[in-house]
Design a protein that fits this description.
By secondary structure, the chain is of the alpha+beta class. The chain has three domains: 83 residues, Alpha-Beta Complex (Aspartate Aminotransferase, domain 1), CATH 3.90.1150; 137 residues, no CATH class; 112 residues, no CATH class. It is built from six helices and 25 strands. The strands form eight sheets. A six-stranded antiparallel β-barrel has the order 3-4-5-9-7-6. A four-stranded antiparallel beta sheet has the order 2-10-12-11. A hairpin with an 8-residue loop joins strand 4 and strand 5.
């Protein structure tokens, strides 16, 4: 086994039960410099502001107020596994109204709920916005996203997830990318390290470990004993392309069967040059515009017809196309055509 290609088990699997939980809340950011919600367009901002003030003992029922320094936001966070009461977690704050910027604002105490509806954390603090905005009478410049920001350690855990890790009798390891060969190798490495058959592969994505046969005193000790073992994973041949940026990412196991490739560019050009025609002096009539169009088709020579021999790796094909001056976007079209012809032996993912 090549050690340079080995990966730790902890980087390949997730331990069943050891997971984070998503949190979400609805709150209010105050202290903005006139960049908050327009309350006429965001009535929910006025509603939550009224509720907060009434909880603080300020009666604003029936009052008309239109401040521009507040914004309604959605607060999101992630509760890590084994978080305890009093731990602090990071949260992300995003405007949901027509606020222009959250820069310099402060998030008022916001409960964060999990999928079960219970409150697990409370967020509050100064928002660090991820952009900047400058505006004048006739121009406006925005860099980044000033309507979203983060609060590092901005939420405090108020409730723990009810999960007793010490009561487990078996560990279930779930592969992030299920593969039968990788699962079999993980099973073999664990059993070899322990010295007895404690791990069993259930399917391509699951390995179960008998904690009693590991000899570890607790599930946590068993995880420590196996998570740093090195395994050489097997991955499916895959080609990933991003048509928006022209990015191509490929695996080393991609292969191409014998196929002939030809590529050329076809350009359609239409030019409009309308002509205004006027009547003679002192003559009756009116000025009209006569359309004039010029259309043409230009076909570039392309790369000609090239044969790709069987067993050629994708990296060799890409190197050859680069030598011919094919652009990344044309290369994506060529790869899609090779895949459609059944000659590209890999999973083709288009983003």
């Amino acid at each position: 086994m090549a050690q340079a290609q080995s990966v730790r088990i902890k980087d390949l699997v997730e331990v069943d039960g050891v997971r984070s939980n998503d949190l979400v809340g609805y709150g209010l950011v105050v202290g903005l410099n006139g960049t908050g919600d327009g309350l006429r367009n965001s009535p929910f901002t006025e509603e939550i502001m009224t509720n907060i003030l009434e909880r603080l003992g300020v009666n604003v029922t029936g009052e008309q107020f239109r401040p521009r320094n507040v914004a309604a936001v959605i607060v999101t966070g992630r509760l890590p596994a084994f978080s305890r009461v009093g731990n602090q977690i990071d949260v992300t704050v995003s405007a949901i109204g027509d606020a222009k910027s959250l820069l310099g604002g402060t998030l008022i105490m916001t409960p964060l709920n999990a999928a079960d509806g219970d409150i697990y954390a409370v967020a509050q603090g100064t928002v660090i916005a991820g952009g900047v905005e400058a505006e004048g009478d006739a121009a406006r410049v925005v860099q980044g996203v000033p309507t979203a920001g983060v609060i590092p350690s901005g939420a405090r855990v108020e409730r723990e997830v009810s999960f007793d890790f010490t009561q487990l009798s078996n560990l279930r390891l779930a592969l992030r990318e299920p593969d039968f060969t990788t699962a079999a190798r993980i099973e073999e490495v664990i059993n070899r390290a322990i010295g007895r058959r404690a791990a069993t592969m259930l399917d391509a994505g699951t390995i179960t470990v008998d904690l009693q046969r590991t000899g570890a005193g607790s599930p946590a000790r068993a995880v420590v004993a196996i998570e740093n073992l090195a395994v050489e994973p097997e991955r499916r041949a895959r080609v990933v392309v991003d048509q928006r940026s022209g990015t191509i990412v490929m695996g080393s196991d991609v292969r191409i069967s014998r196929v002939a490739v030809s590529q050329g560019n076809l350009t359609l050009r239409i030019e409009e040059a309308p002509l205004a025609v006027q009547p003679n002096p002192f003559a009756e009539g009116q000025t009209v515009v006569v359309p004039r169009s010029a259309a043409g088709i230009i076909e570039e020579p392309g790369i000609g017809l090239a044969e790709v021999p069987a067993g050629t790796s994708l990296s060799e094909v890409i190197a050859g196309l680069n030598a011919l001056g094919v652009s990344p976007r044309d290369m994506i079209d060529i790869l899609k055509s090779i895949k459609a012809a059944g000659a590209l032996h890999a999973e083709f993912v288009v983003m």
